[in-house]
């Protein structure tokens, strides 16, 4: 290649604004979001000293996250209604707790504070899905879904965020769902509770900053699409390049990485899931078309029922 050819190549690539401008814009966008989500404040975490509480980590995604976080040496505290499904490492503490009962959550919070210390990181992961179309769901199905996924999340925040806000140190990570951004037939009540979880995430982020003057407290949200756990047993639909079925191990790793980054993040996984949030601002035919495409995915859903 001659020098002239090289200059022509540089002119057509690096110096071509049509190619470089989107990359520059993406980088600027990412930097602005990062700064905004972290309130422009640096925070340091010492993983040998942090106390990480994870709700709903007896099995599924939470269990994988708990094992990884404990393996790095942090003290890990698990709250769940079900017993642990894995051998308990020495630095992992388990408390049986039903998150729908506010008084019980407050009582276990006080016990943890006394016996272990105040959690500095919380992964609000517990959730249920009863897996019925809305006209077939019973009153109990719907009440339980909202009680765990929305109210239980708020009880978790009300119990464990005060000490973080007071110290202006900590990370509160909410596990929402792609369905919170775009509801799917068969899980309407579940989707509604996850929309609430996303609103709670956005609201807590701004309250930590403005109301509680705790800008260093990180508030994050992770919205996965379908994951191979007992919650979504029976789900149909091809696992393909764009929407691969996620594994509990992979999502557990993402949870651990978000905490270890020390930075607040708002993520959807896999990358193709980012198609969902903008649907509310796009023409309705696009949203309805996407929902039509997913209308059969939940018809044979048969989730386990931790609260029965
Ligand atoms: N599996 C998926 O496809 C998927 C997709 C997106 C988001 N999520 C979310 O990820 C989180 C973890 O789900 P998972 O797939 O690991 O399901 P899972 O059922 O395996 O784990 C959920 C855990 O929450 C616990 N739990 C339920 N109700 C509780 C209560 N009242 N008090 C205390 N613990 C309670 C359960 O006992 C269980 O151990 C949930 O919030 C779920 O909504 C899951």
UniProtKB/TrEMBL annotation:
SUPFAM superfamilies on file: NAD(P)-binding Rossmann-fold domains
One protein family per Pfam: adh_short
Organism: Lepidopterella palustris CBS 459.81
Domain of life per record: Eukaryota
GO MF terms held by the record: oxidoreductase activity, acting on the CH-OH group of donors, NAD or NADP as acceptor
Family: Belongs to the short-chain dehydrogenases/reductases (SDR) family.
PANTHER family, A to Z: PKSB, RETINOL DEHYDROGENASE 10
Signal sequence range: none
PROSITE patterns: ADH_SHORT
Keywords: NADP, Oxidoreductase
InterPro entries for the chain: NAD(P)-bd_dom_sf (IPR036291), Sc_DH/Rdtase_CS (IPR020904), SDR_fam (IPR002347)
Membrane-spanning segments: none
UniProt protein name: Putative short-chain dehydrogenase
């Amino acid at each position: 290649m001659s020098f002239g050819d090289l200059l022509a190549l540089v002119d057509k690539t690096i110096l071509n604004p049509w190619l470089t401008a989107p990359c520059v814009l993406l980088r600027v966008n990412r930097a602005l979001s990062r700064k905004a989500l972290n309130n422009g404040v640096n925070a340091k975490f010492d993983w040998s000293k942090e106390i990480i509480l994870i709700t709903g980590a007896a099995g599924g995604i939470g269990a994988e996250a708990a094992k990884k976080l404990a393996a790095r040496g942090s003290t890990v505290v698990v709250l769940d209604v079900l017993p642990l499904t894995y051998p308990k490492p020495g630095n992992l503490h388990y408390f049986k707790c039903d998150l729908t009962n506010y008084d019980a959550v407050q009582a276990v919070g006080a016990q943890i504070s006394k016996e272990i210390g105040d959690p500095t990181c919380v992964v609000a992961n517990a959730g249920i899905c009863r897996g019925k179309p809305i006209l077939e769901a019973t009153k109990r199905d719907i009440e339980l879904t909202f009680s765990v996924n929305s109210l239980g999340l708020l009880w978790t925040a009300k119990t464990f965020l005060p000490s973080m806000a007071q110290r202006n140190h900590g990370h509160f990570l909410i596990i929402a769902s792609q369905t919170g951004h775009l509801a799917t037939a068969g899980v309407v009540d579940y989707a509604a509770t996850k929309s609430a979880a996303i609103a709670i995430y956005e609201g807590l982020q701004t309250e930590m900053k403005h109301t509680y003057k705790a800008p260093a407290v990180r508030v994050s949200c992770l919205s996965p699409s379908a994951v191979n756990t007992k919650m979504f047993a029976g789900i149909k639909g091809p696992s393909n390049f764009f929407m691969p079925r996620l594994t509990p191990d992979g999502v557990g790793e993402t949870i651990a990485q978000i905490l270890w980054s020390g930075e607040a993040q708002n993520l959807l996984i896999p990358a193709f899931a980012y198609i969902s949030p903008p649907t509310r601002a796009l023409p309705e035919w696009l949203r309805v078309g996407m929902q039509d495409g997913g209308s059969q995915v939940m018809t044979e859903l048969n989730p386990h029922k931790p609260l029965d």
